[in-house]
Amino acid sequence: MKRRTFDILMATAGLFLAVTLIAAGGLLTWAHTFIGNEVHTQLAAQQIYFPANNSPAIKAPEFAAMHQYAGQQLTTGAQAEVYADHFIANHLKAIGGGKTYAQLSAEAIAQPKNAALAAQVNTVFKGETLRGLLLNAYAFGTMGTIAAIAAYIAGVVMLILAGLGLVHARRTPYATDILNGHPAHTPDPGTAPVPATRTSGNGLAAAAPGGSPNPPA
After folding, report:
1. pTM of the prediction?
2. Under a CB-based contact definition with an 8 Å cutoff, are residues 13 and 165 in contact?
3. Rg of the Cα trace of the chain?
4. Which residues are within 8 A (CB) of 181 and not within 5 positions of it... i.e. 6 or more apart?
């Protein structure tokens, strides 16, 4: 196969992939917008608000991340992540004494008459459920953004590579073969055949037809 033909084929395939990836990026951007709107709608319906900046609820050092959204309504994935990991999680740790819902539930099963423990398990269960829902909202919002950015970057890279391939194809002589890099039917420099010689009866070397005789020693 000619090198120019190969370059053109690869560049064409690269252009096709670039267009496909950029189109996918557009669709993923639309998906990100749709997911963002859905997350906003669902979170806004919950009517969750961050405590005020001077609230005792976020006074402790472990609630420091909450202050950036102090007093705001929770409506975005980023806010949901902060509320879940820096507010609910810290309160659940205090309520459960550092134990998870699974651990507390196992203790409650072993102590069926312990009403206080049963109430503790119920509170932790509700808190863990809300925390999981908020983190899911954060994950979906983030996933759409990352996927769209990745598709755009890959599309641009393929577009650049395809352009370089077309430039190389224009600069490559048409007769150049893809395997040895030299024009077809043209001997490789430095590999010209050496003329054969034959020895005459008197010990002198004579050139074969088409060659030049060697001078006597």
Report:
1. 0.60
2. no
3. 38
4. 3
